[in-house]
Request: fold
Amino acid sequence: MSGSVVALAGGVGGARLCQGLSQCLPAHQLTVVVNTGDDFEHWGLQICPDLDTVMYTLASLNDTAQGWGVRGDTRHLMQALARLGGEEWFALGDQDVATHLMRTTLLKTHSLSAVTAQLCQRLGIQVTVVPMSDQPVRTQVETDQGRLAFQDYFVRRACQPVFKSLVFSGIEVARPSPGFLAALSDPELSAVVVCPSNPLLSIEPILALPSVRAQLRALSVPVVAVSPFIGGQAVKGPAAKMFKELGLPATASGLVEYYQGLLDGVVIDKADGPPSGVKVCSTDILMRDAGDQARLARELLTFVETL
Ligand code: FO1
Reply:
């Protein structure tokens, strides 16, 4: 691929595809735009779970078994907190805390974009990673148990409450980050990739930012998603449960319907039926290891060139 690619990403699935894309594209041709709706303050620390998952994955530091955090991390801090009666529902590894301490300190004088760029540089990440916005946007989940803060719904209650809708607190006054806007207006842009992240929790906050949907629709380059579903199940996380609670099938067709005309193409698993209304690439979309990530990214980029 000769032009640049913007990837919209959230947690584990997005991070894995971005790692694959980073192996197929020169670093200057990839910008990863990361959801910050999951961000929250905990123990006085600014925690950006999706930015961390993307950074740790691109730096090959990620805990692949757990899905978040640093591989081989210890929990001495959490154990000491528990001894003092502290809450344990959100587990912070010791090395992970270093990231949150650094970010929290730097954020006193720098934007989240600048802090993210500095953390990425220190971790040796060459592709551009930007938060979706420098202003705080906080996802809240309307459920049968009332409106819940994102991490309360996701981690503390393990996504058990029935999902109804989302509220993105702060979105009206938030702006897409400078790096996000620059990547979308790059004359060399050749595609926007919607990663196989949770469409509701990870991608929707990015799309809900003022002007983003309109800008994506106005682009003359293809917008292509990789499905997060295989055989009616999400590869990871609660996306299938949430789609069903919304009355949408947890399939590639449900995905295309959900994105409401945004997509030109979709990459689906070979086990699944093709959706109508978009171009389809059917392949093995399960990313078990780095080899799968690179293969899927290659197939995605080849597909994009046909659109
Ligand atoms: N997810 C969990 O299910 N339990 C945790 O204790 C937890 C801790 C955690 C700490 C730092 C971090 O960056 C992420 C962490 N996550 C944890 C993952 C995270 O909350 C969610 O997976 C994302 O917000 C959804 O993409």
Q: What stands out?
A: The chain has one domain: 4-306.
